[in-house]
Amino acid sequence: MDHSDGFFPIVAVFYAVFHPTEGTKIVYQVPENSIKTKTSNKYKNADKGKQSVDNSDEFIEDNDTSHLEGDHDDFDVGGENDSTKGLFNFDTVKNYIIPKSQLCNKLISVQIGKYKVMGYPVNIENTDYSRNSFNFNFCFVFDCNSDTTPYESAIERMGKMFRVLEEQLFVLSKLDKEYIYFKNRSMISPLTSTGTSPGVSTPNGNEVGVEYFFNPEGNLDHLSTPGHKKTKNISLSSIESLINQIYQDLNTYSECCIPIDLANSVDIKLFPIFPPPVNIKAQHVPIATVKLNLLVDSTWDPTMVKILPYIDGINSIKRISELADADYILTKQCIQHFMHYECLEILDIFQFTNIYAPTNFIGKFLKLLGMAEECQAYVVADSSNSLSKLPLTSFNGYSSLKSNSVPRRDTNDTHPALNGIKSTSMTLNSTQAPLLRKVSASYALESPSKSFMHSARGPSLGAGSNIKMENGSKKATISVPSKTTLFYLYRSLNQQLTLRDWYFHHQKLLVNVDIRRFINFGVSRGIIYRVHSYPILNSIIKSIENDGDDSIEALIHQVQHVKRVSFTSPERIRKEIKDQIIQERNDSGTTNIHNNRSLGQGSSTHFGDHESAYNSVDHTLDYSDWSEVVTEESDSEDSWIESSDGEGYDHESSRKEQEMIDLLKLVKGFQPYDSVCSHLHKSRAEVREMLEALGASSEINA
Amino acid sequence: MSSRKKLLLMGRSGSGKSLMRSIIFSNYSAFDTRRLGATIDVEHSHLRFLGNMTLNLWDCGGQDVFMDNYFTNQKDHIFKMVQVLIHVFDVESKSINKDIEIFVKSLTNLQKYSPDAKIFVLLHKMDLVQVDKRQQLFLIMMEKLQLISDPYHFELTGFPTSIWDESLYKAWSQIVCSLIPNMNLFNESLGKFSSILDAEEIILFEKTTFLVISLTNQSLLQAVDSAPPDDLDPKRFEKISNIIKNYKQSITKLRSNFQNLIIKGSNGNHFYIDVLTDNMYIMVILKDNEQQPNAFHEELLVLENIKNARKWFDKIEVAV
Question: Do residue B77 and residue B191 come from a single domain?
Fold first, then answer.
């Protein structure tokens, strides 16, 4: 249950103290009567004058037999007069609210029923107190499912502060008007000392005249040192007002600042504690969940401001960094920060070659209230939008469902940044990515209409001219896709079906549906998941099975050697050695000692005689992070070569060869196609070609 | 084969239960007890007594909240299988009625769950009452309480106590001895030993708490017509407990152990205190023989005798 400001609300607050004769009792609680104690359901006791307070109920006591009828405890106490049943019965937890001394001065939380009570019990030992110690606890009651981590440090601090206040100035124990917590009740009166002290008996059996007593106020008056009279004495006017205020302020404002006196105040501010940011990849697509452009101010990081317009749910992180002309690493960090503060979600690049399949939570669509309605609102699209006119019929011949068939180079298969479909989806999204939760049908309605005002591109949008849009009219009738349709569509996704084929099959049903949003909704709610394709080189598999990496090196040699045969020269070779050194030094991977199986080692054997300046630490590259390294690496490397280049040599082929090496490494690291494509900036078809050059390959969908 | 005995220590808050427990069983001195705090809920102590016997002492906090609990939610937990109930009354208490009410509740529950238990009543803090009024007060109180408990068929034993004198030891000795099943055996053996040693008096103490377990006096063994020892203080045993315990504590401060003690009195009395078994001390009081003046008792002989008696008493202990 989320509170509006993200913190779970406090259900109740109470202040409990250990009374010398009564034991643990709640001195004050807010809201009233939220916690049932015996005193609120009091039975008549032997001092016959007293009547039961509050709820007259089933507790009867017969003084003659002193039978205690009504062993009712917990929740069925209280007659019909009781309007608030109370959250829980205090007696069951009282020994943990004021526990034995071993548990004191620590943050203790107890769960009872549906509630969780968290407090910091304090035990102060001092011979001035009757019973030689004073115990108290400020407790906060929460719902048992609340996340209370923001409150923990605040409660602890408050407990410690009151501990010190009590130790030094007896702030809390003096609240009781009768000074029942102290041995010597003669606190107020200065110096007249013959107050009786019940707790102290002496050998001769006489009452000890109490000459010693403590009375800070009295002492100060007595001393009357200059300036002392002017200092305001510490006193807590009432604990009730303090607790009341804490309760209200924390629930309303998530912070409170209540002065206790000139020097002390209860200062609490709640900070939400978020989990640490996760690692994200270049091919992830961020989509904003809050209107970030409304939050921007002058203190924002410039990179963040730069990338902000490109966060639209379509651009991958790599793409964002390119479009915004920002450094990739910085972009990634910005996105991670946004994620940490839960401002955006991460999705996959939307491509028609993606494959999705239902998860086992598909039932949530039917069971969770409101999910289906939200889905409808989010995915509805103008029926006259361009998607329905997608020239997909030209791909009719492409009916093979196997994704590892020979790829054909077609416009739809290019990199998402370049294909025609992109233009369509871009039009759909030129509105900012809406808040996923608060989308109304009219908003969805507006977006396609607006987008068409701006769209002017794409040959595949040839349908644009056919569309008659009434300018600004909101009265176009839209038929909202029904829930069954949507559910059927979700269900019909399977692992053999690319989106394109799926669309083709269900074209009629998808007339009113914005596919991209449809998929996004499903993925973010967990009812469908993305099936990734992984390119696998058979030779790599074999090498793993045979437990030797030589084939990789052989491949690399092959690649490099073929290209380089005509270019070997001492300087060139030295350059290449240095390249390798740079590569290795730039590795962000772990350095496991591997028996002579690193790439560097392989290259060193390849470059046999020229190993001189070689750093022969074995590396095993961590391929999951390799992708970033590759990209900067190739940049730096290229620039380095170019800057020191003194020979005419082929940049093009070295780049290609570098790409091959990168591809090899990515494939070795079992990266999905998205990742490979993002890093190499190539379309899937091109990547497949390159793979073929390397040897037999296959694809796995998972 | 060890036996566990459950002792319930109840009474209102501040009546002195935890204090007594600390003094008797934890070697606190009366002055140390100033520092004790209130008992929260029940404090359990396990005490080994005489080797085989384990005393399970339940010191129940006396605040209202706890008391309410004992008689409602936890009553079977608290009152089952109780061997002894020790109820403490504070003579200074302003609300006697409430005290009695609680006592009555305890009796009710005890009758329900452990009808065979023995009940001891301690009127504590007697030192706050004027000396001449003490006996009177005690008698009045005991009468009243006995009246109250008659319907429950419990026999009460009462003691006036104070931590500042030896009455505490007397009460607790009685309490603990009532738990020892084969007291007679102890008494008999002690009698025999006494006649062998020709001792004036022999007393057996428990090692840690120095509570009197058994005693024998020569005058008891002899014929009735011999002169009654009216010059002996009837409270001497408790006083001895008190004194020796304090002595032991002083010794511990010097970081040495108490082994045995031999005192030769000027009036011809010799006191020997020595370890008898692992759990008992024995105190032998020998008098100079009037018929043989100037004869002296061989100290070592006496000690040797005591050592030999050890095996004997060990056997008795094991049978406890």
Answer: no
Q: Do B40 and B169 belong together in one domain? A: yes
B134 to chain A, minimum CA–CA distance in Å? Answer: 12
A91 contacts B69? CB cut-off 8 A: yes
Residues B147 and B173 in one domain: yes
Task: Give B184→chain A minimum CA distance, Å.
Answer: 37
Spell out which residues of chain B touch residue A99, defining contact as CB-CB under 8 Å: 40
A65: which chain B residues are within 8 Å (Cβ-Cβ)?
A: 108
Instruction: Report, as ranges of residue numbers, the positions in chain B whose pLDDT lies below 70.
Output: 1-3, 51, 218-232, 234, 288-299, 317-320
Find residues 188-247 of chain A whose CB sits inside 8 Å of chain B: 198-203, 205, 207
**Which of A66, A99, A131 is facing B101, going by the closest CB pair?**
A66
d(CA B310, CA A635): 95
State how far the Cα of A256 lies from the Cα of A270, in Å rounded to an integer: 9
| The two three-digit tokens of residue A429, written as one number | 């999204």
Domain count, chain B: 2
Cα A475 from Cα A445, distance rounded (Å): 10
Please indicate, yes or no, whether residues B53 and B81 belong to a single structural domain of this protein. Answer: yes
- B128/A94 touch (CB, cutoff 8 Å), yes or no: no
Q: Is there a single domain that holds both residue B161 and residue B216?
A: no
Instruction: Residue B68: name the closest of A233, A207, A23 by CA.
Output: A23
**Structural domain that includes position B76:** 3-177
Model ipTM value: 0.74
- Whether A534 and A674 have beta carbons less than 8 Å apart is answered as no
Q: Cα A329 to chain center, whole Å?
A: 21
Distance, CA of A249 to CA of A240 (rounded, Å): 14
Contact with chain B for residue A133, Cβ under 8 A: yes
Q: Running along chain A, 702 residues long, what does each successive block of 10 average in pLDDT?
A: 62 86 82 69 36 33 34 36 59 83 86 88 84 86 83 86 84 72 55 36 38 40 47 59 83 80 74 72 77 76 81 79 84 83 77 80 79 80 56 38 33 33 37 32 35 33 34 61 81 80 80 80 81 78 70 65 50 59 48 36 35 32 40 39 42 76 76 75 78 76 74
* HEC secondary structure over A371-418: HHHHHHHHHECCCCCHHHHCCCHHHCCCCCCCCCCCCCCCHHHCCCCC
Same domain, B211 and B163: no
Record: contact B13-A23, CB cut-off 8 A:
yes
Instruction: Measure the CA–CA gap between A529 and A521, rounded to whole angstroms.
Output: 11
Comparing CB atoms, the residue among B34, B63, B128 nearest residue A127 is B34
How much is the pTM?
A: 0.54
